[in-house]
Design goal:
The chain has 128 residues and is α+β, with helices and mostly antiparallel strands. The chain has a single domain, classed as Pnp Oxidase, Chain A. It is 30% helix and 31% strand. It contains three helices and seven strands; from the N terminus they run E-E-E-E-H-E-E-H-H-E. It has a seven-stranded antiparallel β-sheet with strand order 2-1-5-6-7-4-3. The chain is globular and about 30 Å long.
Length: 128
């Protein structure tokens, strides 16, 4: 099964000093084997990818837990906005449907109470 077919994957990014930071994300196929997900431009994932674009992807559950027998893929990530963001957002919406609508509603509610975690950029990953 392709990594793009997974419901959740654990994204591993790296700090400047090489420490691993893991978070579960939704993922969708974009084109030519590339995959992507949406996130906030101010997120730590974006900050880490901007200085260290090498990442790992591992099939996981919604909390980022992985089974012992699953393979980890490596690749390069890049942060995108504009039309590339729209392409990734549409792919995520097509794959996850109503779940995306629910997350957008929660995001809007969060804005009302001072949180600004809205997805306004995407990460495109090219796998090795």
């Amino acid at each position: 099964m392709s990594i793009a077919a997974e419901k959740y994957v654990r994204l591993t990014t790296f700090t400047r000093d090489g420490r691993r930071k893991e978070s579960p994300v939704w993922i969708a196929e974009i084109d030519d084997g590339a995959v992507g997900f949406t996130t906030g431009l101010g997120s730590w994932k974006v900050k880490r990818i901007n200085h260290t674009p090498g990442v790992e992807l591992t099939p996981s559950d919604a909390k980022g837990r992985v089974d012992d027998d699953v393979a980890t893929l490596t690749g390069q990530a890049r942060v995108v906005t504009g039309s590339e963001f729209a392409t990734v957002a549409e792919a995520i919406k097509a794959k996850y449907g109503i779940q995306v609508s629910m997350m957008l509603a929660l995001s809007r509610l969060g804005k009302l109470i001072g949180k600004d975690d809205a997805s306004n950029c995407a990460i495109i990953l090219t796998l090795d």
